[in-house]
Amino acid sequence: MSKTSKCSLQSSVCDDITNGTVFVTDRAKIPETNLDMNLVGKELCRHHYNKLIVNENYRLMKVAK
Ligand SMILES: [Zn+2]
Predict the structure, then answer these.
(1) For 6, left (φ over 0), alpha (ψ -120 to 50), or beta?
(2) Cβ count near 7 (within 10 Å)
(3) Ligand 1 centroid vs 65 CA: distance in angstroms?
(4) What's this model's pTM, rounded to 2 decimal places?
(5) Which tens digit of pLDDT belongs to each residue from 1-58?
(6) Distance 21 CA to ligand 1 centre (A)
(7) 27 CA to middle of ligand 1, Å?
């Protein structure tokens, strides 16, 4: 089993792959604000996964209240 362990978003801040990467499946809850980034099927570092999915979902959830 090969793993690329590489963030799909090539950015200077991708220094977090030591903790592994997260493969975004179509079951992931992509925030509607980031749907146009086509994140499904991509491998993200923890930094971007948290930033684009976890934190954004949290932000939207707070806004909705
Ligand atoms: Zn990244």
Answers:
(1) beta
(2) 22
(3) 30
(4) 0.80
(5) 345 568 888 766 676 567 788 899 999 999 999 999 999 999 998 889 999 999 999 9
(6) 9
(7) 20
